[in-house]
Batch of 4 targets.
Target 1
Amino acid sequence: MLASAAAEKRRREKAVDFARSNIGLEGFTITEKLEAFAQLYVDGEIDLDEFVGAKLSNECAAPTDRETP
């Protein structure tokens, strides 16, 4: 059972890392509050619905200073 918990945590870490990368490529940064929610998700303390709900309630990424073309 420990192996499956470790595998699930790794899967969640990879998903969050992928999302961070995509957000960065779009010119956004992730707020500290959302990073905290992401860690709760990775640690298994909240599920995907709770994590997505946090993003949808204006806790999500803030634009960077990058100018758009």
Note: The two ends are 50 Å apart (CA to CA).
Target 2
Amino acid sequence: MADQYDMDYERVAGLKITGVPLYLWEENNFLIIANRYGNVINPFDGISNRRVCSMQKFGVLTSARRWINDEIIVNSNGHEFKVSVVEYTDDWSPFKPAPFDKVDDSEEDDDNMETISKTWMEEELEEPEEGEI
């Protein structure tokens, strides 16, 4: 891993950590993992208040030239856990969405209602006579 780092080169990387046991979900534990890849630039907001604890995302300033995709071993009380650290990208823009970028949920619902109202509904079926299916 050391050969892919160059101190003259830095970039921003979004990383996602998965596989951390729930009882280890503390900011200090995530910082220990994150600092292996660079300096944390996007803090861990509200770790203790999260409802979904399947993963934690954060940003680092790293000198790694390749995408980060690692599996590391975390030791706790004599137990070993495999933890995945994967670089990811999210669509991001410094600009607010324009009106044509937004999807209005009420328009979608209206379209669905029109479709349902145009659907052919079969009238009550007559009871089959004896021998009919």
Note: The helical segments are 27-34, 105-118.
Target 3
Amino acid sequence: MAGTTQILQLADRVEPTSHLCFRHGVENRRLCVYVRVRTFSFKGDLVVSQPRLVIPVTAYGVLLVAALQTLVVPVIGDIQAALGVSAAAASWAVTANLLAAAVFTPVLGRLGDLRGRRPVMIGIVILVLAGSILAATTTSLPLLVIGRVLQATSFGLFPLGIGVLREELPAKRLTGAMALVSGMLSVGAGLGITVTGLLMRGEGADYHQLFWLSTGMSILGLIGVLLLPRRPAAATGKLDWTGAAVLGLGLVLLVMPLEQGNTWGWASPATLGSLAGAVVVLALFVLMERRIKQPLVTTRMLRHRPIVIAHVAGLSTGFAMFAIFLSVSALVQAPPSVTGYGFGSSVLAASLVYLLPGSAGGIITAPLGGRLVIRFGAKATLLIAALLTAAGFILLAVVHSTTWEVIVGSVAVNTGVMFGYASLPALVIQNVDRTETGIANSVNSIFRSVGMSLGTAFVVTLVTRNLIPGLPVGLPQESQFRLIFIVGAAVALVTAGVVGFLLPRSRPAAQLTVPEVEEEEAAGAAGVEVPAALVARQKTA
């Protein structure tokens, strides 16, 4: 009877798929009753859960993030010509997007934890849609930049999507789903470059077409997030707006010189001053967060070794992803008749032949990475990722005179990137509470974005230095590409060393704690799939 009373007391906490547990008997054994409810009441509204849509909706959202990031990069010259502005001014269509993303991502991730992920995701997609329409209809650079700032909110979809997966999926499916969704970052980036090449070919091509495309993609994304199940917020409390402002300022000071260093000069007072300011402001942010009761980022996330190493790996993975995209694209477009290397490919051919195989292969390699995490753990998968990345860069540094050599090297690096993306969310959520899922993955996303900026700045700097003399158009010596590939391999090998020697060994199926495994097995015996996060929620209820 006591057990029945406990069940009745818990009945108001039943969710679409939930369980009620109680102790009974002289052995005080734990019994759980698993309940499947297809519709449920939440704040007076009738809500229909659509768990089958969770993975495709979150995967599409992440693909949208990556596509929006790379869609504009190849058309900076077209924007410059169409709007009659300088190259430096036109580049703000990219720079403003990255700066805004650095500010928005942690705020949106924490808002999702505090206010619910679904409503925040809906708001994000509406802002992205508004930014796409503005950019598609304006002929003013300031308005285009504002549109790109609005599109930057899309960066919040990745950490929020990981949080949704943790809420909705059974633990046995979570790692594979996170790997697939994370892999869309590379797939979307390659897709963005390829689609740009297709739309901008021929006479009369207009860059506005790209923003009309992003408008259509945003509408589809909005329909998708509206179908996500509603859930109460994972955490309670207030957003640390002061901390968010200080963190945003520090990230702007960090990302700005990485994007503008080639224009300002890497040894200029503006570049060095911004980097020094970033160090000071970010150090101030850490001190502030240690002194307040409800920090934006807890001290555990700032000093816990697995989380710190996850951020280092995210930085390295982002660096490798953009370094391979930009360097291979520049290499294969070089005319061999005057440079002695390259293939004289068009932008479209470079995208379709050399970049797309590695990106599209993510549809296969991302789930494979998830299986590796399930079977061997996040540490082993990260180590494999770093070594694969290094192997691909080394191959390209040694040989890149035939098409197959470049494709194989590029695919190897991209596979390493995919495996890295597959393991990072698992490593992060294994080491944070479910109430911090959004902000923890947001911080990891920031490190990945900074790595992308570093990769971009590094490649652009090298391909604009040590040029072949006597050519009307500046083209780099072949040695510059070898240096890019050697440095890419070195970064990956350093990451492998950090992961191999400093990261504690992680268990297979890393997202589960021992109690969750026991309850997951009990649910399986009952024929019911239970979202992993519900176990933690029931314990804290």
Note: The chain has 23 helices and four strands.
Target 4
Amino acid sequence: IPFIFLTARGSARDVTDGKRLGVDDYLIKPFQPEDFLITIQNKLQRTAELRAVGQESLDDARRMLIQMISHELRTPLTYITGGFALLADELEKPSDTTGEHVQATLSLIQNGTQRLNRLAEQMILYVQIISGHVAEQVRILSECWELEYLVNDAVSLHTALQRERGVTFEYFLPEDDVIAIQGVKDLLLTAFSEVIRNAIQYSPEESQIDLIISRDERYGVFSVIDRGKGIAPEDQATIWDVLIQSQRERSEQQGTGMGLPIVKGIITAHGGDVYLYSVPNEGTEVTLQLPLAATSQC
């Protein structure tokens, strides 16, 4: 609702103070009734325009959500239903290759269930982020953790994918310096794991990924550098927005567009920040900053 200030106090300082309080307009007495009506009409029109823009953005987000869910549900469900159909046919008419076919079909079904599970977990976590539940968890459950320990744990979650892609990790660690941060372990592991997973997923096979742990006066810093396709400049501005996929994700038909927004939500809930630097056809660097834990807390 627009707020118009009607007053006889018309000095420059009075006007400035009024605007600082958040008024939409400032009318000084005496004024003409026509001026008052025009001011009201203009403010109401502007409010309606802003509301329309907001509704349009909400409608766009809903459409994108429906499209994303439709696509992400359809693909793994196809794996599962198609896999069961193939399995039924194979068991009904067994042959010398039945064992191999059954194993391949079970892998197909497993792939579909894993994708469904990941989609469900991401959607639940994102709802918890935007509802403030994650911030409340951070406030209540935070503990002191060594940054290097958390990074090693996150890396260990992707041993199979790392082996499949043939990538290697190169660690860059501070000498004789233990960097401790404050946070909720499971949430931090989720954020670190997502960034590492993306780096493995989009890196060329047999390539190297750099894992860099450092600090400044206020933050513990974790950076992941891959040598993949990179992200187009036009995508980088919105890469942290939910349901926005980069060109590399779209081209490879991977990702829901929720991974990096979840990373950002978790890190900012911990009082930290996120940064991305990418050069197409050269690689991407993602940096997570988290406040250092006070010595007395560890």
Note: Residues 134-297 form a domain with the Heat Shock Protein 90 fold (CATH 3.30.565.10).
